[in-house]
Design a protein that fits this description.
The protein is mainly α. The protein has helices at residues 3-28, 30-33, 44-71, 78-98, 104-123.
């Protein structure tokens, strides 16, 4: 593997690890991570939904990226790309249609990481 590919792999691994950590935090300490995302902790079924959905979202993104890096298979990059871009679009729809705040500080990283993953999907895979 070339030095450029090693650097790209490392850069791609960093958000993957961050996403896994965020997913695990939802499982073990939702009260600690919720405010970082502008959320308040719900109770009852709302709390169950927050923990279940958000841990699944972050863990799926992180584990798919790590699987892509380990297996060298391009297809593993696409689920996190789709999830991140749909999330960014959903935030824009929330702003346009539902009077939510425009969360550019969250949208920008989602788009940047999705683009990074598209580049990685093109350059890194050894298989597919």
């Amino acid at each position: 593997m070339s030095i450029a590919k090693k650097i790209l792999s490392t850069v791609v691994a960093l958000p993957a690890i961050l996403f896994v950590v965020m997913g695990l935090r939802w499982l073990v300490n939702p009260g600690g991570i919720a405010p970082e995302l502008g959320l308040t902790i719900e109770s009852g079924v709302g709390l169950s939904t927050q923990i279940g959905d958000l841990s699944a979202f972050f863990l799926t993104i992180g584990l798919c990226i790590l699987t892509a890096l380990v297996t060298g298979r391009r297809t593993w990059y696409y689920p996190p790309i789709v999830l991140l871009l749909i999330t960014a679009v959903g935030r824009i729809v929330a702003w346009l249609v539902h009077d939510a705040a425009l969360a550019l500080s969250l949208i920008a990283p989602e788009i940047v990481i999705a683009i990074l993953l598209l580049v990685a999907a093109k350059i890194l895979p050894e298989k597919d």
